[in-house]
Input
Amino acid sequence: MSSAIQDTIKALVEFEAELESARLEAVDSKKKVVKDAGDWAASAKSSALSKAQQFASERIAKAKAEAEKQAEAIRAKGQADLKNFESSISRRKTKAAEYVVGRLLGVQQ
Output
């Protein structure tokens, strides 16, 4: 009988060793899953930031191009208005000078 008890104890010790091995594998697997999840999250964050920066850069470039286009249109209109104003002044300069001289000399027009 003592052999049966020893065999049972030996089997229980082996079973306990297998359980401990399984527990350690489960702990290692849990650590690996947690590490992999952290790595995945870091990768996803990096990818999201990269895409957001790219999107922002594209929007900024588009807005800058639009603003430059509007600025050019405003500048062109300003130059055209200035040219028209200068032309108007040139056309009326002689008449304005005659009017001022006439007023200074007391001549009514």
Remarks:
- The chain is about 95% helix and 0% strand.
- The longest helix spans residues 2-105.
- The chain has a mean pLDDT of 92.
